Amino acid sequence: MERSNNNLIERYVYDVARRLPEKDREDVKKELRANIYDMLPEGASDDAVKKVLYELGSPVSLAEKYRTHPRYLISPAYFDEYVAALKWILPLVGVLVMLIGFAVGAFDAAKATVENLPLIISGIISKGVSMGVSAAFQALVWTTIGFVIAEHGGAKKKVGEHGWRIEDLPEAQNAKAGIPLSEGIAELVLSVIFSVFAILFCTGRLPFAMMFSQGGVVFYNIFSQSFLDILVPFILVSLLLAVVQAAAKIKDRRWSVLVCATIVTKKLVDMAITLYLINQPNILSAEFRGFLTDAGLLQVLPNINGTNVLIIVFSMLIILGAIAETIKTIKLTVQAHVK
Amino acid sequence: MPENDTLQNFLTELRRGSLTLAVLGSLREPRYGYALLQTLQEQQIDIEANTLYPLLRRLESQELLTSDWDTSESRPRKYYSVSAKGREALRQLMTEWGNMQRSIEAICGKGEENGTV
């Protein structure tokens, strides 16, 4: 009887102590053991021992009370920022890598000899989804590790003499000023898809796109290959800016100065690229030019100082459009910052 | 039920700080853990073993209590008593306790006037 009592008490004391820092364990064991025996009469029954142990509560909660410093992986001081960071990092990384996964899947499919379309599509989708999900998990793990290191590596949060600064307060936002998460993700997806197709087209890997029919069954490219060749770097620049813009929207989810700046940059760069491109000589393929000449369309449009009037009109429209969009973006941002 | 929980939380909050006072005050003469628990419970202090024992350890590590193992009897016992630092802390806490009681009574009225105790 006494033996099994001892055993129960020893097991309880051990279970409490093992949850404590090593330097405290022996002391706590000794104290707790003495206290438990004091609470029991000499030669107490098993039931009496159990009653006392239940009174003391679970070893987990008792150890928690003995612990002087609460244990956090990420303390409340950092938790808000941790959640806020995850909210933009996970969707951004997940979607971006998923798109890369689709591309990798499509690339694999192009190399393989399989002709089964459903199989190819399911292969591409599963590649994208699995890469996206695993990247999101990676992002979760590394973000958490980053915060834990910041927490325990003693990166002090205190700034200024009061521990925080009035200047760091965010601008008050209108409720309407939010940008839904879906908008950023949709932009990201569409930009990547559009750019991939555009690059495939420019490098001649999409023979079925952007052609015209002349008379019967003969198909020709509308654009000259020399023009298509210079297009690819511009598409990549535009894609990069689109990704930055979408990332800013996914991160801030409101009309912040950062979002506004990325949108305006993209609009102006896109405008410059487009203006440069439509003023290139020999945009159209020789075949298409021939077709237009035969149809008498080229002669109808007058040239001013050697430049086709159509190009001048397009240029004006592009400039006006870009300016209008820039103004609209700035207006939305200003509205969001003014009550 | 939730209302009861809220009230229980308020009571726990209110009592928490006063436990230190009760413990320091009771240990002007040496006592071991379980004897102290019984003394406090006799005085209608609502405290459980699993709160008192960790509290004693914390106060000891903060040097408000000193301790001594008595191994002369069959059961070894750890006797706690208040240290000089603990006595000083108790004195200041008691002053604050008096101030708070006066302030609260001035704001809420004395217990008798409210018809409770």
What is the secondary structure topology, with strand pairs?
The complex is a heterodimer of chains A (339) and B (117).
Chain A: H1 2-17, H2 22-38, H3 46-56, H4 59-66, H5 76-111, H6 117-152, H7 181-202, E1 211-214, E2 218-221, H8 225-252, H9 257-278, H10 286-295, H11 297-300, E3 303-304, E4 307-308, H12 309-337
Antiparallel strand pairs in A: 1-2, 3-4
Helix pairs in contact in A: 1-2, 1-3, 1-4, 5-6, 5-7, 5-8, 7-8, 8-9, 9-12
Chain B: H1 2-26, E1 31-32, H2 33-42, H3 49-61, E2 65-70, E3 77-82, H4 84-108
Antiparallel strand pairs in B: 1-3, 2-3
Shape of chain A: elongated
Structural class of chain A: mainly alpha
Biggest interface and residues each? A-B, 18 and 17 residues
Which range does the strand content of chain B fall in?
Answer: 5-15%
Radius of gyration of chain B: 17 Å
